[in-house]
């Protein structure tokens, strides 16, 4: 699953370079510029990728680590 998360990160990096929408004047839903809608989708994809990374790639033994200020 780590490879899938890395692939999603790389895909998001590539898709973030949206040169094709810079001069496009179309509106989504009649009021939202298509470039802004594209970046909203990228943001949702980034959120989903981070969620998958924390579920499947976070170290398993880290839940019982001491917090700053706790006596060891």
Automatic annotation (TrEMBL):
Pfam families: DUF3311
InterPro entries recorded: DUF3311
Lineage: Bacteria, Pseudomonadati, Planctomycetota, Planctomycetia, Pirellulales
Transmembrane segments annotated in the record for this chain: 37-58
Highest taxon of source: Bacteria
Protein name per the record: DUF3311 domain-containing protein
Key words, A-Z: Membrane, Transmembrane, Transmembrane helix
């Amino acid at each position: 699953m780590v490879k899938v998360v890395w692939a999603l990160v790389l895909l998001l990096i590539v898709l973030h370079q949206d040169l094709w929408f810079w001069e496009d004047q179309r509106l989504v839903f009649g009021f939202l510029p298509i470039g802004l809608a594209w970046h909203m989708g990228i943001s949702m994809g980034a959120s989903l990728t981070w969620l998958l990374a924390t579920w499947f790639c976070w170290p398993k033994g880290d839940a019982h680590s001491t917090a700053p200020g706790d006596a060891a």
